[in-house]
Amino acid sequence: MTPSPRPPQPDENPAGIDLPLDPLPGHSSRGRLERILRRGEFAVTTELNPPDSADPEDVYERAKVFDGWVDAINAVDASGANCHMSSVGICALLTRMGYAPVYQISCRDRNRIAIQGDVLGAAAMGVANMLCLTGDGVQAGDQPGAKPVFDLDCMSLLETVRTMRDEQKFLSGRKLTTPPAVFLGAAINPFAPPYEFRPHRLAKKIAAGAQFVQSQYCFDVPMFREYMRRVNDLGLTEQCYVLCGVGPLASAKTARWIRANVPGIHIPDAVIARLEGAADQKKEGKQIAIDIINEVKEIEGVSGIHVMAYRQEEFVAEIVHESGVLKGRRPWRREPRADDAMVAERLDHILHDSPTETPQAIVSQAAT
Amino acid sequence: MSDKQQPTVTQATQVRNAAPKTAYKPADVSPQRRVQRRYTMRLWSVRHSRGLEWFYERFADVFLLLHPIWKAVGYSRAEAPVKFVEKRVKGLMFDCRMCGQCVLSSTGMSCPMNCPKQLRNGPCGGVRANGNCEVEPDMPCVWVKAWEGSRNMRNGDAILAVQKPVDQSLRETSAWLRVTARAAAEREKAKKGEPA
């Protein structure tokens, strides 16, 4: 058998998909997401629904649906204060397979000692992107009796990681021998009061170290446009990449439930009316997401989108494809290497063809 | 970006419903709020942030003038009575939590330690459309108020500076004495630096 050479992939270390990329001048990380954004390409990121299991296959399966459609995958840190597989664990698994995960760190569950340790651990495992969040209150989740930590907040967390990266030291001032080379992210919510303060808050996050930001679900494009106008006026989009959060709504009923129960997500009446009027609400929800993407991608200063399709992950590929934001570009996807294929074939042979194969049999077979 | 679509009955709802039902139902959601239920004074302080800023500046000067007295008495001996007064005055005016590192002048005279997440750098993404807290639905967001208060202040743009994380080892200590001692040390350093 002659192994066919693996098709060349953009932004990949030829020595191995799980290895960091070559450092580039001006880049703070050795990851794919930063390269794509700095090249000026329209980036697409998404969120992985964390499994409630200890099986790595669950993570791989959930990541596989995004193959070839997204540039980075967010590993959420117990979102909504509901317990799931840890984000650092998911990131470790994803980097092994060559994916570019975004490690979400929330301040709700861990104090500064634990967080700084995890930052080093994650960076050592090849995580190139970190998203610093405050996190939801424990009261929102399924374990409201937990102790809320909130030792740092998102801003001081950003500053802490930036200090570790740029000044090579812990908060205490103790030296690091190898700093974590990470691309730092934060979250923004232009759709919650105090609206006047929100652009300034982004400026604060940038001052604290944010290099890219992902927004909360955008369903109100005029509101987002107004926010971006003010952000552009402050000159912030030159210092930071803004990714707009979008996602499909499953039905008008879900939309109403989210509006009533999930603080921070703003859904205008027009969107709900449009969902209600549709024959197939799920399809209409997807179409609304595509329409919103088509509007926001034209807004000045928007560098990409962050597609959140909780429990509708299979829609991400369709949404990205049908909105055409990639403009023909094909993000990295995991393809079997030649030697992987050989191992797979050999395994298949061992498992299915001749289960009682002995070393003697192999030798005699090779001799003939 | 943690909030997303969920089925109508979440695990959290089930947990809440499964909790044993007794006659005693505690008020409020977070311990932060239970310590201080009313916030009329807090809101008054935010509305009068300009005046309080003016007063605080004078007050800090007076405290600095008293530095020789504090030193003579000994800062450690002065701590107990000063803290006693500080805790009660600031507790009444701002629902102070005695973090020991007062940032009221940078937060529109709205104490950020009353936020259930104790955010010191601005509002989280969960502020409700009516400007109330996501955790405590009937409490106005501390940071919405902080922004309003800061707009009235002369030095209100201090709200745009990034605050360091709280040093938990300074809890239940006097911020007034700390600020005074620091200012005095700086003044002495400047004096020493001048002739040289």
From TrEMBL, chain A:
Cofactor(s) required, per the database record: FAD
Pfam families (UniProt xref): MTHFR
CDD domains documented for this protein: MTHFR (cd00537)
The keyword Chloroplast belongs to this UniProt entry's keyword annotation: no
InterPro entries named in the record: FAD-linked_oxidoreductase-like, Mehydrof_redctse-like
Reactions this protein catalyses: (6S)-5-methyl-5,6,7,8-tetrahydrofolate + NAD(+) = (6R)-5,10-methylene-5,6,7,8-tetrahydrofolate + NADH + H(+)
Key words, A-Z: FAD, Flavoprotein, Oxidoreductase
Region (Disordered): 1-30
Residue stretches in coiled coil: none
Compositional bias per record (Pro residues), positions renumbered to this chain: 1-11
Pathway(s) of this molecule: One-carbon metabolism; tetrahydrofolate interconversion; Amino-acid biosynthesis; L-methionine biosynthesis via de novo pathway
Family membership: Belongs to the methylenetetrahydrofolate reductase family.
Name of the molecule in the record: Methylenetetrahydrofolate reductase
Naturally occurring in which organism (per UniProt): Neoaquamicrobium sediminum
